[in-house]
Design goal:
Elements lengths: L1 H10 L4 H22 L7 H21 L14 H31 L10 H30 L3 E5 L2 H12 L6 E6 L5 H8 L3 E4 L3 H16 L3 E5 L2 H5 L6 E3 L2 E6 L6 H17 L1 H18 L5 E7 L5 E7 L27 H5 L7 H7 L3 E3 L6 H10 L12 E3 L1 H5 L6 H13 L3 H17 L3
Parallel strand pairs: 1-2, 1-3, 3-4, 9-10
Antiparallel strand pairs: 4-6, 5-6, 7-8
Length: 452
């Protein structure tokens, strides 16, 4: 029963190591105070408990959204200490900011000069240094325990015959911490061999396979629970590749089935909810005004629902203000709209030019169907043709579609789907909160310029 509960919790991103980290951080905070002050603390116990609780939340949030609790691959895991230290420094900066802000707040509103959230600088410095060491040790022990429980990783080597031979020779020069279970030299045999041997890791040593058979590799990721590494070339780093793993002296790229790790997807969702809820009075007022305008110039229905493809290739009902004549596709069937589409009601063209017709989709964001920023969702009838004709098109469905995105600020309504896909995939692999902020600012400029 407990095993099933842990499995379900793991599916949501929960890890037992989170509990160990929280206990370790609190042990350092309270232990440092006891060493420095004994039992005669400079502030009341209640204030220190509040301060340490807030610090725990700040540090844990930093560690979580920094990706420290994502599942590690069997091979090619990144060094632990540098990652932990960077995140602990960021968390320490957050704690210092909260402490200073709270002191100023209470001084302003309570006419008191006392520091209301006590966290001495020495304690914070000790927490960053000692906490980094302890959290690193916890992870080293966790990795060792996992290796004992699961045994050595098993690797299936795949690539052109010459590349496989060269890599096998490289492996023979050192002590391997994995077991080589087989080799595949033809892409057509890859899926069958992977199913038959069930390796923990698939090592693709011919980078050309990623270009020629990339979709097959992604399908394998979806079908089977193993890690895929593709040998990195020098030119890959010149193209802006950030994460490179090292296995037996060779550089590899880790492939993943989803565009965003679970922690980043949760952070993106949190940002969406905060923005939409905090700005609700503004956008709800705009929705009401546009709805009244639509009633006058276009009549009923003001809104229309259209099925679009979203996260995980699942369809959802997307909301829009109606800007076209009724039954606009009766004679044409499902087609992409253009900048001079004659089906658009003349008095509603400015709504499309300023993207105001998309405002009701903020309700889709609240419902979890969409994000504020992401690839624009397309219709199922069109998706089938795109996926057959454009390699890698299905990858854009590995994150929530958005109201706006890179393709919307740099492209136009009539930009070809394969060109928009380049923007969408670039966004997916380079996502950050700062990139979303930049896209939103540029979207405002596009809206003001009425460029479609």
């Amino acid at each position: 029963m407990s095993g099933q509960l842990l499995t379900r919790l793991n599916g949501t991103g929960f890890r037992l190591i989170m509990v160990a980290d929280i206990l370790a951080l609190n042990a350092v905070m309270y232990g440092t105070n006891l060493v420095r002050f004994g039992t005669d603390w400079p502030n009341s116990l209640e204030l220190f408990v509040s301060s340490f609780s807030i610090a725990t939340l700040v540090f844990f949030s930093t560690l979580y959204f920094g990706g420290l609790y994502e599942r590690e691959p069997h091979l090619g895991a990144q060094p632990i200490l540098p990652r932990v230290s960077r995140l602990m420094l960021v968390g320490g900066g957050g704690v210092a900011l909260v402490t200073l802000s709270s002191s100023g707040f209470f001084r302003e509103f309570t006419l008191s000069g006392n520091q209301r959230l006590p966290f001495p600088f020495v304690n914070l410095l000790v927490l960053i240094v000692l906490g980094s060491a302890i959290l690193t040790l916890i992870r080293m022990l966790s990795r060792r325990q996992q290796r004992r429980r699961l045994g050595q990783p098993t690797v299936l080597l795949a690539g052109e015959k010459g590349d496989v031979t060269a890599v096998r020779e490289q492996f023979s020069r050192g002590n391997l911490d994995f077991v080589l279970v087989g080799e595949v030299t033809k892409p057509i045999d890859l899926s069958a061999q992977a199913k038959a041997l069930s390796p923990t890791d698939l090592m693709v040593v011919s980078p050309s396979w990623l270009a020629d058979d990339g979709e097959q590799l992604v399908h394998l990721l979806d079908e089977q629970e193993f890690n895929i590494l593709v040998r990195a070339r020098g030119v890959d780093t010149m193209l802006g590749l950030k994460q490179i793993s090292q296995v037996t002296g060779l550089p590899f790229i880790q492939l993943r089935a989803s565009a965003l790790p679970l922690s980043q997807a949760h952070l993106k969702r949190l940002i969406d909810l905060v923005l939409v809820i905090s700005l609700a009075p503004v956008w709800l007022t705009l929705v009401a005004l546009v709805a009244l305008y639509q009633m006058v110039v276009a009549g009923k229905p003001v809104l229309f629902f259209q099925h679009r493809v979203g996260l995980g290739n699942k369809t959802f009902p997307m909301l829009k203000f109606r800007t076209m004549v009724l039954e606009a596709e009766n004679h044409t069937g499902p087609i992409l709209s253009s900048s001079d589409d004659d089906r658009v009601i003349p008095a509603c063209r400015w709504l499309r030019a300023t993207r105001m017709d998309e405002l009701p989709q903020l309700l889709n964001v609240l419902a979890g169907h969409m994000s504020i920023v992401g690839p624009r969702p397309e219709r199922p009838e069109l998706i089938a043709n795109f996926e057959n004709g454009i390699q890698g098109y299905r990858l854009r469905h590995s994150l929530r579609p958005g109201l706006t995105g890179l393709a919307q600020i740099y492209g136009r309504y009539d930009t070809r789907p394969e060109y928009k896909l380049g923007y969408d995939l670039h966004y997916a692999v380079n996502w950050s909160a700062l990139l979303d902020a930049e896209i939103l600012m540029r979207t405002i400029l596009v809206v003001l310029g009425r460029r479609v």
